[in-house]
Input
Amino acid sequence: MEDQPKTLLVTLTGKDRPGVTSAIFAALAAAGVEVIDIEQIVLRRRLVLGILVTAPRDWKKLRDVIERTATDLDMNVEVDRGAGDNRSRSGDRSHITIIGKPLKASAMAAIAGRIADSGANIDKIERMARYPVTAIELHVSGAPADRLRPLLAAEAVRQGIDLAVQRDSLHRRGIRLIVMDVDSTLIQGEVIEMIAAHAGQEAEVARVTEAAMRGELDFETSLRERVALLAGVPATALDEVYDAIELAPGARTMVRTLRRLGYRFAIVSGGFTQITDRLAADLGIHFARANELEIVDGVLTGRILGEVVDRAGKAVALREFATEVGVPLDAVIAIGDGANDLDMLNAAGLGIAYNAKPVVRDAADTSVNVPYLDAILYLLGISREQIEDADAAVGIVTPAPPLGLDD
Output
């Protein structure tokens, strides 16, 4: 086995300004070294630049040149001689996304401690968002995602933060399919309860809905029971319900941003096609599947046409949409909040419980409990700055961040 090549690690710190990086590389270029690795970050205009290069025979002479260059730049520099590349980056790699509102130092300390306990190493940390939540992504190596996920999920619950662990793979960078529940996920509230208000049955329908979402009642039975209470409601009430629907905060941003990247979207609902088809058309969602209310002579009959889209039906729809799009299940992201979403969440490569019931949070790959649907973009490696830049390019204005959050 050949010896690992001798290397130099150059670490430069100080006030950032134009020309710093080029000056250091000019000094390195004169020695004819090869660049092996680079990391650079800027925090509040303070630069930290790390450069790993092959070590020349007369490495001390190069060190002196680098130190003189740093002095001229009024920067601090360290030059360390060693061997090999960044060994910690071999083996299993994962992306860990942490979301907090606020994100406390104690929570970061706890998560970093659990990562260390697993034998993994944090190779890189970057901020994905600073408002309305703080989102941080860790690039971790040395432990499989399946080992990290339960360990970190338990710690996230203790710290009151959201956390997702995803294996580093090509799927994270390719076109993916997003499959979403509708009621209390894509939109706020439950459509069936809004319709029931027109029949004076809102309280009774809400009671049955809650029991079904907790998994205490068979979904199909509970749905037929609730729909029966809608008999006699004029079909025109569906237009009023649609006009009153409020999307989850960030829903349009999430769909708009991911569509630009070529993602495909589907909504799968235990609700009704009379609403979901219009939502899909409004948001530019590619696929929609839901139950169809029977309407006769302009009035709801209290019955459903065809097979019920229940817990199993949602998973079936997810697989069919994935086949139509031509992506593997590992490239599917499912988002839901209720017990009838569990099969769908388990079928996807990444199942996200969004402001979900406890039984769903416990079963999903990860959970997002902040009231912003576009926070899911951070799990996909898309930063708030990238979202705003893309919007600005087409004239969409983003509100200014809260005072005190500017750099």
Confidence is low (pLDDT under 50) at residues 403-407.
